[in-house]
Amino acid sequence: MQFSVFIVGQLPDPTPENERRMLHDSVELAVRAEEMGFDRVWAVEHHGLKWYSHMSTSEIFLTWVAARTSRIRVGHGVVTLPFGYQHPVRVAERTAMLDVLSDGRLDVGVGRSASRREMSLFGVDASTSHDQVEEALQIVTGVWGGDTSGWRGSLDIAPGEVFPRPRQDPHPPLFTACTNEAALRSAAHRGLGALVLGLGDLDLLRRRRTVYDEARAARTGRDLLTPAVNDHFAVVCPTVVLDDAAEARRIGVRGQQFFVESSRHWYGGAPPPDLDVSADGERGLRNLERAVLREMEAAGVPARPEYVAAYHTHHPYGTADLALSRVRELADAGADEVMCLVQMGGVPHAACMETVRQWGEHVIPHFR
């Protein structure tokens, strides 16, 4: 079992001063994660999402983290690949440079960042974004491998060499964001690790692991993106761990409410999140779940398990004993890595730092 910290960059009150503090605090959290024995720190890439994420240039954030650390791996969770966001050759160059400077500590997750806000901000066409991610992956891995023949597809890239080459041979491990079963099947067929980014329950996680394993068992050599197969299965786990279990649950559930509300706003057109971080998160999530179920019923849409699971609060908000028990459950359900989501909107930085300390001292050692 591996452990990581998953940094989103959320802000209930996104003033420039608070934004600067949050970014520096996030670096400090990553440094603490290395000190406490975590394996990896992931950083998202999102654009223009006022409350949900201020992590727009994760390659700079991860470079800063790599310079402040010596052992912990740094990961894009994920870098956006549709062409409107960035040219695939630039992605290949930047990631290779970071892999070299970090002495081979980079993991690269990819995705398409599918909110309407982000796509419209960069002129990305949702109908072609899936194909562009696949095409970009082929370009990036070709550039990493020293292919000088250029590319003829949706993009027209002239022959030529691109530098530097990655430090890891043949390239950094590749992952892809998996928020539904189709994405899981595609990842397994292509030999890519799965970043299971939704807030799910154990039954949903078991189902997702089964889908991934069945697709992996059915793949052939022709399906693989590169010979460097990565079958790593990482899952997000919201958590706040303190000595005071009741306080940890109060803070964690309220943070989860903000996380869900802010993502619903940008991905589903819902109202902005409740910015009162002292509000009752238990009540807020129950009200949200009822509202979502009513909306889906009115629209004649089945209540998909991943939608409903986002409102469950069976996460390690409490003492280290609860976190230890939860990791055992996640391991039994098929997780290879627990991605600790600590930095949710409204969770104080001190609580984030204490949570990482508690995991490092009382949870991680049991799985070494």
The description of the largest β-sheet is: 8 strands, parallel, barrel
- What's the domain count? 1
Low-confidence stretches: none
Overall mean pLDDT score?
Answer: 95
Which CATH C-level class is it?
Answer: Alpha Beta
The succession of helices and strands, N to C, reads EHEHEHEHHEEEHEHEEHHHEHEH
Distance between the termini: 8 Å
Order of strands in the sheet with most strands: 1-2-3-4-7-8-9-12
Specify the structural class.
alpha/beta
Enter the CATH topology name.
Answer: TIM Barrel
**What's the tally of helices?**
12
At the fourth CATH level, what is the homologous superfamily? Luciferase-like domain
* Helix-residue proportion: 40-55%
Mind telling me which CATH architecture this is?
A: Alpha-Beta Barrel
Rg is 20 Å
Tell me the strand percentage band: 5-15%
Number of strands: 12
What spatial form do the alpha-carbon principal axes imply? globular
